Amino acid sequence: MLAIVFAAVTVIAIITLALIRTLRPDRQARGLTELAVLLSAYGAVYGPVGIGFVVQLRHGPDLSLLPSFLSGALAGALLAILLPGGLWLAALLTLWVLRRPLELPSTRMAVRSAVLLVVALALVFGLGMHYFEAVEDRGVLIWVGSFLFYTSFFVAQSFVVPWLTFLRLPRLGESPESERLQSWVDEIMTRRGQRPIAVRVHEGGLVNAFVLWGIRKPWLLVGEGLLKEMAYAEVRAVLAHEISHVIRRDHVRLLLSGLAWAAAITVCSRLVLVPLLQADRSVLFITVLATFNTLYLVALGVVMRRMEYATDRLAVELLDGRGTPLASALERLAEFKRAPLEQKSLTHPSVRDRVNAIHKESADWLSVARDSGESTDATSSTV
Length: 383
Fold this sequence. Notes:
mainly alpha
């Protein structure tokens, strides 16, 4: 019965994706349509995975006969492949259906990140399984182990693996413009009473910048394409936005949200999902799991969009009230990504909404608007 449910989910998801891909060729899909595409992508990816699990449990080999470390390592590697691998594949499928470009530093770095995550979880599960089998009272241990697994997965995915992936990038200091950017970043951090932040460059065509949360301190990663394609004022505005993330400690907010997600999914799994599977209530199991994921995605989207607005406000403040370069940089980034200005995403407001919010906080734009209004009044009175 469970295999039939997974098969039905897969078929419905594929049909939904095909219809949206056919009926919405303009990349303007957003809101509920975008959410439907994402959930359908998850169904198309994890439906076959569910069928595979059912087949393995009923007809596959008994992995419990293997040594504890080996069985745990295999389980950890499999979960690493299915969880982040499935999420990445669903994200790629979502972008393909919505006809949106994939923003990726390089294929080599993506492969390196995936390998690092698989090896890390294999080692953790291998060592953990050996300890788990040595404990007699496993009730509390299962709860703690489940929470630690989801937490370690989130931390590894969001912090450790990206840090290891970009570890060998060169420092940004190869040209006068690069040195000027590093000096400006140091000046901003000193003015705010923050520790210095190292600026690094990714050689290639990446037209973007982002914060890389390190083990001891964050780095500011700048794409070489950003330095080539944008004016100095626009590049500095993009860096101001990323510096604002550091000053606001958004990585702490992200970590707390990950811990909340780990606690919620642990409780949901142990109290609801596992009993439903044991009772062979497959339809209800799928419904609860889809509802939980949807609520989490909606809540995450609300938090992240508010975070982006707050970060833009602080960036304008760091730019001494001049928000026009930041607004221009956001519009140019959307142009490079071939994304409409009105297009929203799960974690970011539309560029149009962000630009409007920036203009309300921007002293230079308000000055221009005021001068324009005075000029219009003078002209009308003369006429």
